[in-house]
Amino acid sequence: MRLTILGGGGFRVPLVYGALLTDRAEGRVTRVVLHDLDAGRLAAVTRVLAEQAAGVPDAPEVTATTDLDEALRGADFVFSAIRVGGLEGRANDERIALAEGVLGQETVGAGGIAYGLRTVPVAVDIAHRVARLAPDAWVINFTNPAGLVTEAMSRHLGDRVIGICDSPVGLGRRIARVLGVRNPGDAWIDYVGLNHLGWVRGLRVAGRDELPRLLADPGLLGSFEEGRLFGVDWLRSLGAIPNEYLHYYYFNREAVRAYQQADRTRGAFLADQQARFYREAERSDGSALAIWDRTRAEREATYMSENREAAGAGEREADDLSGGYEKVALALMRAIARDERTTLILNVRNQSTLCVLDADAVIEVPCLVDANGAHPVAVAPLPDHATGLVCSVKAVEREVLSAAESGSRASAVKAFALHPLVDSVTVARRLMDGYAAVHPGLAYLE
Ligand code: G6P
Ligand code: MN
Question: Does some domain include residue 226?
Fold first, then answer.
C-alpha cells in the first residue's frame, strides 16, 4: 500500500511514520511518498525518518518529491497536512486580528477565516488532482481549519475525503482517565459539533453513562485539563465537557488579552522554533531525530499556554503531551484498508446527524469506519446554545467557501463580519484589508 503525504516536509510527519513502523500486519503501508514545495524541508524530514527506520525490518520505503502530480499518481491513501503561507502566515493571521482587538488563532475566529480563505483554493486544486490521478484513493485531511477544508474537498471527492483531529480523542482519553475507566478504548464517547467546536455529553462504559459521576464531583472535575481551563462551575452549568478550543469562545476576552500580552504569538514562536529545527536537522552531523524530538517536546509543552495562563490552569500533564494525532490517522487507514471495523471521531458529511444542518455540512462526530469509509452515527441533538454556535460558525464557513469559489471580497468580509467572535462590520472590513495587504494568497479576492 502506498501512502502519499502532502506537506511531507512538515514537522509532524515523523509522528505518522513512527506509527507506520509499529504496524506489522498484512496490508500495511509499504511505501511512503513525501510531497512538499520545499526541498530543504523534505531533506530534513527524510533524515529524521531514516533514523527512525534504522534497524526496523521492512520499514516502509520513503521517497520525496516536489512534483505534486507525481506524488499523487498511484496513491492508495493521501494525507494532506499542508500549511498555506507557512508559519509566517500563521503569525500574520494572529497579529492582524489581535491588533483589531479580536482573536487571532489558526482555526478559530478571524485568524481561522484568513487561514481558510487562503487554504481552500489550494485544497480544492489538490482535490481536483486526486480525482483525476488517484480516483480510488482515500484522502485523510489534517490541514486546518480541518472541518472547513474537508468540506471544501468533499464537494469534489464526496465521502472519499475524511477530516481528522486529535483534540476529541485527547478529550475523551482524559475524561476516561479521571473516571478510572480501565480501557479507554471501551468507552463510547458521545461527542458532536464542528471541528474545534464540539462537546462531550456522555461517556458510556458497558451501557452506563459515567459522565454524571464526573460532573457531580468537583474534585474529579478540577483534576484534568478541561476542568482547569473552563472551571468546575462552568462545566457543571453546561452539563458537558467542551473541546478545549471552546475556551476561545467562553473566555474570549481573557484569551484575547492573554494573546495580546504574550511576548510572541504562537505562530511567531513556532516560526522561529521550526526555522531553527530545519536549519539544524539539515546541516548537523549529529542526530536529526534527536533534534526533532527535543523540538517536539518543547512544542507540545507550550501548546495553548496563553489559555492555560489566562485560566490559571498551570502546566500540561505528562499524559496529555502526545496528542495521538498519528494514532487516529493510522487507525482510520487500517479500518478502511483492511475492513477492520472501528469507531473514531471524524470530520465527515452530516447526512442526517444534526437536523439543523444540511446533509453536506461537514461535522465532527463518532463514525463507524470500515472498508466503505466513515459512517456518522446517530447522536442526540445539541442544546440550543451549542446549536446556535454550530450554525453561526457553519454559516461563516459557507461564506468562506463561497468567497473562495467566486473570488468575491464582499463574501470574505461577510465571513469575518458574521463570526460570533468579530464584533463589528467595520472591524471585519479592516481585517480584510489588513490580511489582503500581507497575504499574497488572498490576491484572488476582488
Ligand atoms: C491540536 C489541534 C490541531 C492543531 C495543533 C496546533 O493538535 O487539534 O488542529 O494543528 O493542536 O498545535 P501547535 O503546536 O501548532 O500550536
Ligand atoms: Mn485539530
Answer: yes
Any domain includes 264? yes
Residues 181, 187: Cα–Cα separation, whole Å: 8
Q: Judge if pTM exceeds 0.90.
A: yes
Q: Which of 254, 270, 286 is nearest to 89 (CA)?
A: 270
The Å distance, Cα 289 to ligand 1 centre, comes to 21
Pocket-testing residue among 84, 93, 107, 143, ligand 1, by greatest number of atoms within 8 A of Cβ: 107
pLDDT in tens, 117-159: 999 999 999 999 999 999 999 999 999 999 999 999 999 999 9
Q: 206 CA to middle of ligand 1, Å?
A: 32
Task: Give residue 125's identity as a one-letter amino acid code.
Answer: D
Longest dimension (CA), the chain: 60
**Residue 211 Cβ contacting ligand 1 at under 6 Å:** no
175 and 222 together in one domain? yes
Q: Is residue 268 part of a domain?
A: yes
Residues 343-366: tens digit of each pLDDT: 999 999 999 999 999 999 999 999
**Could you say which DSSP state residue 379 is in?**
-
Residue of 137, 140, 103 lying closest to 123 (CA atoms): 140
Do residues 273 and 302 both lie within one domain?
yes
Is 90 a member of any domain? no
Q: How many residues does the chain have?
A: 446
Beta bridge partners of 374: 369
- Structural domain span for residue 296: 255-307
Determine whether the shortest distance from the Cβ of 90 to ligand 1 is under 6 A: no
Same domain, 269 and 220: no
Ligand 1 centroid to Cα of residue 216, in Å, is 31
Residues whose Cβ atom is located within 5 A of ion ligand 2: 165
Which domain-ending residue is among 269, 284, 307? 307
Domain tally, the chain: 2
Ligand 1: does its nearest atom lie under 6 Å from the Cβ of 119?
A: no
Q: How far is the CA of 286 from the centre of ligand 2 (A)?
A: 32
